[in-house]
Structures
1.
Amino acid sequence: MKKTYVLDTNVLIQSPLALLAFEDNQIVLPMVVLEELDKFKNDDAERGRNARQVIRFLEQLRQSGNLLEGVPLASGGTLRIESNFTAIKLPDDLRPDVNDNRILQICVGLSRTCDPLILVTKDIMVRLKSQMLGIPAEDFTNEQSPSIQEQYTGRMDAYAPDELLNGFRKKGMSPNELYIIQDGKRLPIAPICNQFFIIHSETSEKKTVLGRFDGKMIVPLKYLKEKPFGVSPRNVGQRFLQEALMLDAETAPLVIVRGAAGTAKTFYSLAVGLQRTFEKDTKKYRKILITRPNVQFDDDIGFLPGSEQEKIAPFLRPVIDNLELLVDQDDGERYRNEKELSGKVEELFSRGIVTAEAMNFIRGRSISQTYLIIDEAQNLTPKQAKGLITRVGSGTKVILLGDPMQIDNPLLDERTNGLSYASERMKGSPLCFQISMKSEECERSELAHDAASRM
């Protein structure tokens, strides 16, 4: 049975190609959606670009037929614009001059002849109001990842005979020799390319080795004893993180790191970046480039006074805090001379070793020989994540950092954000390494550790 889907503006703003995602069903766009697209089309940020893309697509469809009557889509369905049902009575609390309520008016009117009818919107409040009116509503799920508990972590605990652990560092181990224990039963593992392993001896739980599945074998970690920029890993998660970050851009051009605050995601990424950028004989990158999405900031940067660096300075404070820890690792002396410490950090920026750019300014570029850190990546949309990763040129390494539980974008959640989307789509790629840090691997402070596990 064919369905009728009424689309809210926010679906198209986040996913401009959503009109092709409903197979052979009927799509209805309320006229107010066109008005909102027209309002957004002049924005410089992602919202404006996506609105313009949708408008251009609608213009192509207009040339092929009458949008008020309906035009066929390449997906096999149809699309039409709806401007009727202005006299539909809504509850007194829902004012008809509010755009969201106008969409609900059309849904109520169409539901009398179109069954089943479903409203698709990313706005939770609209879905709540829709339920009050008896109209089925759902989120746009085409770019949705599994629930946070089911998402890929990039790591696994497994068991192997004790004698195999003894020779592991020299010859590795076949994945067929490992097993997991579930409900008291031994089960074979199904490793994913570049997945990390904590391999326990079957005779002693505490006897372990660390490895990675390279697509054929479980191999020992290559950089286990390294101390990038003088930093030593303090837990298993950081050892896996160090391995992924230290590998060169040809082997590991994309690293996705997820974890709660205090698990050293940004700190360790900067440490490895500085190590690889300062190296004389084996220098891997020209510079470290840092960017981070911020919903309000990305929309308004063009209107803020000052240079680009002055505009983004307030949003770089977390990065600067970590650089201060790295350029002076003496905890007792670090803050005795704040001016000297600030000068050391400023020198990294003035020499071009570390640079920072607004995410909007990276669009359209091809970035080569660069160590690119995208912090707070949970606030990316799936389209933004794809756009940034596809900017990568020769010799560039991309590190996506974030916590899917700390999202500021009102239209994203733990399943629809760009970080989770990239993780799910790139799982199993030989060019992508992933690691999820655990709350017990928080190293910021005892309080941070305790809060991360309790709150």
2.
Amino acid sequence: MKQRLKLGKISGIPLYMHWTFPLLILYFVYDGLNRGLDTVGLLWLVGFILTIFFCVVLHELGHSLSARWYGIDTEDITLLPIGGVARLKAMPRKPWREIVVALMGPMVNVVIAAGLFIYFWLTSQSAMHGIPEEADGLVINGTNFLSWLFLTNVGLVVFNCIPAFPMDGGRVLRGLLGLRFKRVTATKIASILGRICAVGFAALSFLPGQSPFLLFIAIFIYFTASQEYHSVKTEEALREKTVRNAMRTQFTLIPAETNLDEVIPYITSTAEQGFLVVESTEYGTDLKGGVTRPAIVRAIKRHKGQESFFEKYLSRRRSKVNSFFVHELMNDRVRYLTPDMPLPMVYQEMMQLRISVMPVRENNELVGVLDYHQIQEFIKLNS
């Protein structure tokens, strides 16, 4: 999701296009050329695809603005070849609110389809006007453009209401389950059903005449459903917890000039996964950063020549460690915490800033250490 082009803002929400989105246009152009469409036909086809994605943006705005009504902002909206994604900063915790937010997206498509149906009724036209009973692929022209737009919006409503979490129908399902079960349990059930639906979509994608994008949608649903369940489980485990609940009060400080041979006793005498790196000065001890046990072990393996081919490849891809001192391995970004800081906020910050080890200070005194591995263990114990 990092490789995106910003298109602007709509209702104050940043709108992005993922780098893979133009591949969708190229796919339809390629398909149209193979079917013998002329330049005018291709222009109609591309114009139709862009119009559909304008409807998709409106769909995502339906989610975003309804969430805003409940005080939840939206990070951004991103257009992908398989549709749009609105990243809300949080999902409503109350089941009925989640149901409303989930339904507001398809309701936008319902309004668009209803508006087109009224137009057909007022002009005495059929909703299928200009659409041949049998067509070799999608053929768009001035006669059937609105009819295809109507049918596609109806299709978007039906497809999005399939109870495949985290699609809209799946979120409605989780909201309904949330009326009876705890949030984690409701998410687990919805996630399992979502992954079952994803497997079904994947199987359908191999049938003759099916779009290859159905397979991409299946993959997206499967992994996003798993990720969302993990996210909710994490959120519930850390809820109302503070740094004090998860920090270590016994910790090891490693001098910055410690070489790899000298650091081995530090990691063999303790099970700590994160260490603070310090440097002695004339005024005392200065905290320079943090280093993780896996980073030290990888460096020792490189030094001893014991890495596997795969590990060596990953090492070259990540960083080249030419020095054998701890300060060369550490992350020099220091973020001080206090014991009473909310743990969910700190965990989110730890992932965003990519800081695995954070010192905890109280009354200007170092009282503990919090590292990513500890939080993961804390989540497991409290899930």
3.
Amino acid sequence: MPSLARLIPILAATFALATPALADKIDGDWCAPGSARSLHIDGPAITTPGGHAVEGDYSRHFFSYTAPAGEPGAGTRVNMRLLNEMSVEIHFPDVTETWHRCQLNS
């Protein structure tokens, strides 16, 4: 039992110092730098920068969808790749941009 008695304080310190991990998935709210454009991904569902709700091809770190009518590049594929927990690279038909997770105003 002496080894267990020494282990408990070590485990307690480890848990006390642990910080929550950010989700390592593409789901969530993404905002374009320097503009009001944003999008929301929830599994295979996306709300596009133009406000359209459509379905796309989803995996944990990638997402693609066909730009709907009324949006730039209508009918072409938009592809996204998660760079890290806070950044996503978006390949629109004419430009590639890096967007970031939207920050909550609190």
4.
Amino acid sequence: MIDIQSSNNIVSYGSGLTLVILFASLAIFGWLVVKYRNIRDFQFQIFVFIIIYIIGEVLEDYKIPSLSASLPYLGSQIHIIAAAFLALVLWLRLYHVRSSGRKTVDKLESVTEGDVGDADDQ
């Protein structure tokens, strides 16, 4: 028989671990944003995505009584907004690359012996 109390502790530990990982990734991408200082970079866009996702995670895990009564699924809805934002960012970046005529890496090709075009002869 499964002990409900111990499985509940595992779930609460998992949500706490999720927040720790999210804040660690927020710190990494925040450092990259400060270092490069360009809002058009992918790092800034991922930074915004992580902030939106953390807000949804906090609202979902730590239910605020005034918000929980009126908007019970607000955290989940913010997660959906974060996923839509990420999809939009990725689609716009792909569209920009394709419209500018640059190539994207669609497949990996193995390099065979004698098929190295720009390799330096040593």
